[in-house]
């Protein structure tokens, strides 16, 4: 296939390399032509995925019209809070009869509270060959061909299978699903819980609280996800508990790293400023998730405490205590 990856970030780059390895013709687009020119000259993405040599077959361009020329598969890999502007540019060239879209961003737009499929429908129209790919898949490991399993969701089995076949190889296993809502929510919400897991690491509280956090986080994710239209089994799968485990535990996780620094006493503004252009999706998603939970009457105590820590300046130590001192309840309530 002729494939295009819209983003020069770590995840987009890892997927571009994967597609090249599978024999596809791949173009990667980035929003900053000067940086794309640097990548083309060095054959490296030092800003977002250092230490990885880009294959010579991977074409790099800062011109979206050029990138999309002859494309069949379009990978939407920009961070969720920048997706609207990228989609607005893409809309000038979009042909719903021609493109199969694969969203790999993991977030919820804060201004509209829309998932990425909803945002695509708003900007590109409802007649889309849309899919979402998610799961426990850090770019730093995927690009090194570490065994990885993900799930691709689409309302069309044919589209899901097309995307599966494009990406799947001996180190990158792809399952299919029709629960687009659940997959998108699992990928977005786990980033919020990863910040909480990082707080536990930063406070050096040990393994017990992290295990409890992840378990109760899955319950919380399920409550909110089902209220928003996802299915319970999806949150028990790769885009739910699978992505939760890796994002809460891995040293590659930017969201966990943000939480760890919060747990050590750093200010959120200083943390975000020091990250530069590297995006931790869970910071913005904490606000979107809390607003959605409040609007739907869903109890989300962990999300609420993460929101308070990153958006209201609450001391995470007090947040941990407040979670532990909540009114006693049955586990299944």
Secondary structure layout:
Layout: E1 2-6, H1 10-21, E2 25-29, H2 33-42, E3 44-45, E4 49-53, E5 59-61, H3 64-68, E6 73-76, H4 83-90, E7 100-103, H5 116-124, E8 130-134, H6 139-142, E9 148-153, H7 157-167, E10 172-177, H8 180-202, H9 207-227, H10 232-235, H11 238-249, H12 254-263, H13 268-275, H14 281-296, H15 301-311, H16 316-324
* Percent of sequence in beta strands: 5-15%
For this structure, what is the CATH class of the largest domain? Alpha Beta
Q: State the helix count.
A: 16
Helix content: 40-55%
Order of helices and strands: EHEHEEEHEHEHEHEHEHHHHHHHHH
What's the end-to-end separation, in Å?
A: 48 Å
CATH topology-level fold name of the largest domain: Rossmann fold
Question: Could you name the CATH homologous superfamily of the largest domain?
Answer: NAD(P)-binding Rossmann-like Domain
- Low-confidence spans: none
What tags apply to this protein structure?
single chain; 333 residues; alpha/beta; Rossmann fold; N-(1-d-carboxylethyl)-l-norvaline Dehydrogenase, domain 2; 2 domains; eight-stranded mixed β-sheet; 10 strands; 52% helix; globular
Written account of the structure:
With 333 residues, this protein is α/β, with parallel strands linked by helices. The chain has 2 domains: 177 residues, Rossmann fold; 143 residues, Orthogonal Bundle (N-(1-d-carboxylethyl)-l-norvaline Dehydrogenase, domain 2). The protein contains 16 helices and 10 strands. The termini are far apart.
Task: Compose a concise summary of this entry.
By secondary structure, this protein is an alpha/beta fold.
